[in-house]
Amino acid sequence: MYLCFLALLSYSIFFLIRKKASIFYGLAENSVSLLDAIVSPISDEEKFDLLKERNGGLLMSLLKFILFLCCFFAFAYFANSFVFDLLKEDTGYTAFSLFGILSISFGSIIAFILPRPKRDQNYSEIEQLLHRLALDNKNIHLRLFRRGLKRKKKSQEKGMDLFVVVSGLARAGTTSFMNHLMDTEAFSSLSYNDMPFILSPGALNFIKRRNTEKERSHKDGIQIGVNSNEALEEYFWKASLQDAFIENEALELHDVTTDIYNDYLSYQRLVIKDHNSIYLAKNNNFILRYKAIRERNKEFVFVLLVREPLSHAGSLLAMHKNYAELQETDPFVLEYMNWLGHHEFGINQKSMNLGAERKYKEKTSINFWIEEWINYYAFVLANIEEAELVFYEDYCKDPSVSIKNVMNKAGKEPKDLNLKAYSKKRAVEQDFESELLNNAREIYTQLQAKFRS
Known about the structure:
The strands form three sheets. Strands 2-6-1-7-9 form a five-stranded parallel β-sheet, with helices on both faces. Strands 3-4 form a two-stranded antiparallel sheet. The longest helix has 44 residues, at 44-87. The protein has helices at 2-19, 21-38, 44-87, 98-111, 125-135, 138-151, 174-183, 234-240, 258-271, 290-296, 309-329, 331-339, 366-383, 392-397, 399-409, 434-451; strands at 164-168, 187-188, 214-215, 223-224, 250-252, 278-282, 301-306, 351-353, 388-391. It is built from 16 helices and nine strands. The protein is α/β, with parallel strands linked by helices.
């Protein structure tokens, strides 16, 4: 009887620990956050205020942790003493006897197994904690990046001027295009296998991860696994620029210093798997710093995808509604997208401030997304000269042609991938402003005249 009680008591206590794991997580997060503030590159005055703020958070977490432990041990002690006194004539065991320890061990193990945790989310609590510890602390990430560079051989220290960036307004086919380029085996790019230590690619290579593929949260038929490549390099720019280009309402055009540009080339070296491959990135925000990079580098290939404006706006609207609902249900999705600089749609959607005035504010209206298209591609038309424009409709009809063109630009032998045409078209049923759409289609026609060969 006493041994059964010990097992039940152990189960209850450790199940309570499991349910209150946020106390332990908070202590870990605030500890690492304080360290991040210590290594931050800000001025001493700013650092003092930041340390004061984060130290307060750490002390509060530590207080909660201590109070929880006191309650935990007090409950365990008095519960055990009460039942031991009640049953002492009937048992020859104690909590410290062999069978007592086995009973406690059995109960504690079962507490972390039953009831089975619900997996409504893509990431477990431990995985979410690891992502917060890594991605919430950009300055520690930068320190790890510097250490990674030091481990590189001297012969690899110079970065290459030739690299390829696939960009465009979200939902223009950039993921598909990047994946087809990767299939040629001529490129190296970041993948989910590099998460969450994005600035230290390969840091977790010693861990064997199951590559179970599933449809990504966009619900667009694209399957992803740990080896899938994705738009992850924006975290480099967020960390290097300390989020200076991210305002409350918009993403701003910005300059890039020579030091940060050289760091970018060095970062590419960490990603590149061998000397024969070329760095490839998918980055929808790259236009914000395109001018600054192009001034320093005439060699890199900038691939920009363009999609017919009405179907493109319809796709953006549908994705915005999908992610707003998803982020409301699972707040970690919102955290995840904020970390990676994905503000294309969802609750924390931020438009790019490209110099145009905005008329439409309602994000559940297709007019907002048509205007989003106009502002983005009008900027491209006026400011981008050296780019490989890929028109989505042409790409869908014959993907191989567009892929071969980029391969030629990158100086790589085109590879026949036997890619199939994609014929599915999006039907748009929302009411839209005719004059607004006509303006968008005029820009689309001008882009075709300027860039289509």
